[in-house]
Write a structure and sequence with these properties.
Largest sheet: 4 strands, antiparallel
Strand content: 15-25%
Number of strands: 4
CATH class: Alpha Beta
Catalytic activity: a 2'-deoxyribonucleoside 5'-diphosphate + ATP = a 2'-deoxyribonucleoside 5'-triphosphate + ADP; a ribonucleoside 5'-diphosphate + ATP = a ribonucleoside 5'-triphosphate + ADP
Bound molecules: guanosine-5'-diphosphate, magnesium ion
Distance between the termini: 17 Å
GO molecular function: ATP binding; metal ion binding; nucleoside diphosphate kinase activity
Keywords: ATP-binding, Cytoplasm, Kinase, Magnesium, Metal-binding, Nucleotide metabolism, Nucleotide-binding, Phosphoprotein, Transferase
Number of domains: 1
EC number: 2.7.4.6
Number of helices: 7
CATH topology: Alpha-Beta Plaits
CATH architecture: 2-Layer Sandwich
CATH superfamily: Nucleoside diphosphate kinase-like domain
Order of helices and strands: EHHEHHEHHEH
Structural class: alpha+beta
Subunit structure: Homotetramer.
Radius of gyration: 14 Å
Strand order of the largest sheet: 2-3-1-4
């Protein structure tokens, strides 16, 4: 299987509740390694640009407000099959549908405040990594 890189956000709801370590532990236990990681407080423009694909959705305004409410951890995770594996570790978008043991099942508060973001495909992973990190910040 190929070694891939994917982009992850630990969202404000989880950072506020001091869940950063427990969430990163889930990634590490499942063979994903953080190769770049920083804490940022996203600007409105950054959040709107990041989620531009959802801008026509009814939840867009709420999503942006939630993402800029307080700081997040952005990171790049590396490992075998990292993109799909990260999505599996995260669980379904709506925690009500998330499998046992997944981050969203364990920690999400609601479909909006669902604790983590993860890239959904190789193209979006590459775009999202570039959106927040310079090449030289990736230390594989
Ligand atoms: P993801 O890839 O699993 O994060 O889900 P999507 O790409 O479909 O949606 C992006 C984010 O928008 C989700 O993680 C949620 O935070 C939020 N979101 C998606 N659907 C809904 C919804 O129906 N209501 C609300 N309030 N937020 C939503
Ligand atoms: Mg998505």
């Amino acid at each position: 299987m190929a070694i891939e890189r994917t982009f992850s956000i630990i969202k404000p709801d989880a950072v506020r509740r001091n869940l950063v370590g427990q969430i990163i532990a889930k990634f590490e236990e499942n063979g994903l390694r953080p190769i770049a990681l920083k804490k940022i407080h996203m600007t409105r423009a950054q959040a709107e640009g990041f989620y531009a694909v959802h801008k026509e959705r009814p939840f867009f305004g709420e999503l942006v407000e939630q993402m800029i409410a307080s700081p997040v951890i952005v990171q790049v995770l590396e490992g075998e099959n990292a993109i799909l594996k990260n999505r599996e570790i995260m669980g379904a978008t709506n925690p009500a549908n998330a499998a046992e043991g997944t981050i969203r099942k364990l920690f999400a508060l609601s479909v909006g405040e669902n604790s983590v973001h993860g890239s959904d495909a190789p193209e979006t992973a590459a775009q999202e990594i570039k959106y927040f990190f310079k090449d030289e910040e990736l230390v594989g």
